[in-house]
Please model this.
Amino acid sequence: MSTPFLDLGDGVEVRKLEPADAEEIYAIVGSERERLQPWMPWAEGASVETTRSFIEANIATDGLDALGVFVDGAYVGGIGMRPEELHGDTEIGYWISSTHEGRGLVTRACRALIDHAFGELGLHRVTIRAAPNNARSRAIPERLGFTEEGVMREAGRTSLGYHDLVVYGLLDREWKRE
Ligand SMILES: CC(C)(COP(=O)(O)OP(=O)(O)OC[C@H]1O[C@@H](n2cnc3c(N)ncnc32)[C@H](O)[C@@H]1OP(=O)(O)O)[C@@H](O)C(=O)NCCC(=O)NCCS
Model:
């Protein structure tokens, strides 16, 4: 298992995923497909192979797209970002298994990733987008002090069709470091 990328304390860690994690991840994604499908476009067609390919592509580019949230060594959800150095910004995406929802793990993981984005990476802006009716997801940027900036019409797509995305933005100078 890889060393923690971000250690959040209390046995909670964000790690860079490895190909060997694919089966453990898919065991959760496969069992929660119906829950994830309305929001995550990759969920419906996910398999062990697509999960492993996603991880390998991220490793090949030394990216931060394929990170996992682990509790006491067990995978419980995904988080990631693709830093755009040219523009100095990045977008964060996330999901957590239903067994670990409602505990603040995603908020904590986002907080640590934002610290990394504005700190080590020197980025200027972080974006989070969520469907208008995805109240739990929207609560995360709202809890973290992001500004709601507008709606991208039909910018999201799942097998259920296109849907709008609410855009939240946070600038480096607005981030309240703890
Ligand atoms: C969106 C999603 C990631 C949010 O997960 P979550 O568990 O609500 O988020 P957090 O881990 O930050 O937990 C927040 C909850 O923990 C509580 N909490 C407990 N301790 C906390 C802490 N230290 N800090 C923040 N919140 C804390 C909050 O009060 C909140 O509870 P609530 O249910 O009363 O609102 C999750 O619902 C999910 O995976 N949904 C399906 C996929 C999805 O929609 N992904 C996003 C696509 S844009």
Remarks:
- Residues 36, 39-40, 94-96, 101-107, 130, 134, 136-137, 139-140 surround coenzyme A (CB under 6 Å).
- The domain at 4-174 is CATH 3.40.630.30 (Aminopeptidase).
- The first helix runs from residue 22 to 31.
